Structure formats: C-alpha cells, structure tokens
Amino acid sequence: MSDNIDKRQKLQDAPFDFQITKDQRVLIYWHGKQIKIVAGKAAQKLIAVIDGLDDDEIQLALAKATGNFKRGNERLSKSR
Prior knowledge:
Blueprint: E1 16-20, E2 26-30, E3 33-38, H1 40-50, H2 55-66
Antiparallel strand pairs: 1-2, 2-3
C-alpha cells in the first residue's frame, strides 16, 4: 500500500471487514458495526476488485467503497 494513501496508518488496525451474501451483496463492517450494503453492479465490481488482494489492499478497497462516512453526518443504519 502506498504511504500517501494511509498517512495516519488507520488501516493497519484492519477496522473494516466484509461479508458476501448468497445474493451477491457485500456487507461492509467497521469495527464490527455494519455501515454499508453494496448491491447490484457496484457489488459485482467490488467483489472483482477484492478478489486476489492482500489484507492491506482489501482494507483500502473497503475504505474507498464506504466513501467519507466518518464526517459526523453518517448513518450507521443499513444504507444502499
């Protein structure tokens, strides 16, 4: 992973986790709390990107998929 992308090294602690459901949706978790559901074409693209990446790169891909959710106005409920 490039040093410029994770300057504060927040992704080293592996805060993100994910689960792929039978219907090909991706559930994204942050510190064990579900923060996003990715479905449809976006889920297919994310699954393809995640496939074959190492753990650090998966963390970065999940962070990018969630967007800037830590701005204070995020919804921690199921969003699509």
